[in-house]
């Protein structure tokens, strides 16, 4: 994120710099979501609503500053770096998902932002940079970078408004059971899912952290599973601010039978040992009584 900001400043792209501000607030929201608990006081809603108002104010400030900063021509090198960053992000996601699948347990995916938002941010940045290269033919294209900043500022404001609305809604809600039930039913419908083992929703004044634990069907390709995980995280982010999907290990029936046999055999051995010890104790008692009788 820091590297992205430096590239935006050096490359002269105000649009890219404004995406950093969006990323900062997304990460702060993620941290708050990770700090959330299952039951939180309604007073935390006041804190999150103030946080939402701050985000909206920052978005207005960005628009104001945009009209007071000198227009620059961004470098096309930024597009290559952004494309490289997208490829690296996909590869990292694929490796993490593959490791969890091989282990048959672990985190399949985490997300604090809808994949469509990521694509929108990339498209806005790309178009704004390309348009600045055609200012010789269309003079008004020189304002494209400024327009890109305004569009991203709107997305930042939307992020803040969403948090404010959820904080007010949290003051009225007492249970998350209906939401858990809805998510459980929807995820169980997916063809990639064998069954959902649990849905956890932690909330901090309306900022929600949602985790789904599930078992997957066998013989699914890695690209299909990555697409499924991304789609599932996007679905969870409709209701929350931080989403994670955890793979639970499938326990085969053979393994269960084997373990039950082992425990039963161990139990039989221990029972046999106990019976022998009790018999030996009884035998020693009888011998002692016989010796006492002879002495008498």
What's the arrangement of secondary structure elements?
Blueprint: H1 2-11, H2 14-34, H3 44-66, H4 77-103, E1 106-111, H5 115-132, H6 144-172, H7 177-188, E2 193-204, E3 207-216, H8 222-236, E4 242-247, H9 253-295
Would you write up a description of this structure?
- The chain is globular and about 60 Å long.
- The protein has a four-stranded mixed sheet, with helices on both faces.
- The model is unreliable at 252-272, 275-282 and 284-296 (pLDDT under 50).
- The chain is built from nine helices and four strands.
- The protein is α+β, with helices and mostly antiparallel strands.
- 67% of the residues lie in helices and 11% in strands.
- It has a domain at 2-104 and 113-172.
- The termini are far apart.
Order of strands across the main sheet: 1-4-3-2
- Percent of residues in helices: 55-70%
What's the β-strand tally? 4
Helix count, per DSSP?
9
Mean pLDDT across all residues, rounded?
76
End-to-end Cα distance: 96 Å
Which radius of gyration do the C-alpha atoms yield?
30 Å
Could you name the key traits of this structure?
alpha+beta; 296 residues; disordered C terminus; 4-stranded mixed β-sheet; 9 helices; 4 strands; 11% strand
A few lines on this structure:
This protein has 296 residues and is of the alpha+beta class.
